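Local shape tokens:
==================
===
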Amino acid sequence: MATVCMLSTLKPALEPALELHLLHTALQNTFLTATGHNSQHIQGMKQISVEYLEAMLRCLLATAPSWARLHFIGQHLILWLQLQDERDRATAMRVTTSLLCFAVSLHPQFEDSPKVLQVGDLVALLGLCISDPVEEISRQAKEGLFHLYKILVHQKGQDIQEAQELWHTSQHQNQPRRILLYIHLATMGEAFRKILSEDQRRAFAERALLGIHHIMLHVSQAGVVLLYAILGQAGHLMGAEEKEIPVRALRKLLILKCFHQLPKELQRHSHLESALRNPSSLQ
């Protein structure tokens, strides 16, 4: 892994095919080595492997900071963010958040970077991860989203220090975790709706639809909230009575997932209908 990390820093930059091979090698060494073993030695080796991976990804991004570069790296992390093993999932989230934190330090170099529609997909995926039952994964997903938000705000010409907080907890602190989760998802989705491009919002919506069809209920319900938020329809879920939010989300989920129909308030977004009926087309 040390050799892989060193190669990633070479100047001039490596050929794309070699970079891709290095990235695959580093990820496999981190996530596929000694899976299921809990000995102190194995865990120590895995910790070192994770640290090398984080360093390598930072080096790869630093060679040419841009949205395209961030997407190139991020698309290879997406698979690992969806692993069943919660320890590996937590590792993938840690690595992703670390990379996004580093990207913030490079934000001036993103100014002239062309917009990449897949940024919307990454934002939505991290949003779905907020619903993870593992508290640390949920927390780091929020942190990663805030890093992404700051870069996007800067690219819009706004002061990065004035980026609004995505998680307003003070006025909802007495709510159960489940309701607070939905409020966070809606707030986040609405905030990103204001700064993502139209194509990025569409990519966000498609990832949310994939989430709706996920086998795990907590992911499906998160997908509903994110879909409504990015389409500017979160008010249909939030309402005046916050305790009713989970019930409203579940009703919308039944319409979307079980009946393969768009609720009335979403029907003007006709481009979603075919994707709803054939979610495999979004893969």
